[in-house]
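Handout, page 2. Input:
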Amino acid sequence: MRGTPHDSALAEVRFLTVAEVATLMRVSKMTVYRLVHSGDLAAVRVGRSFRVPEHAVHTYLQDALSKAA
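Output:
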């Protein structure tokens, strides 16, 4: 059975932990949690933790930079 194009795209998504996002953005983990809970940063809940798609971090930072300019 073959997967859909959507399945292959999902397989290529790289998920980051909150700690990894915090390190990447050079902010605290609490700041990342606030962004996730406010809906400003997309995330998926896995059990009791969150995973953030890497592209969501890049999108958030690009939007923040464009607003700052």
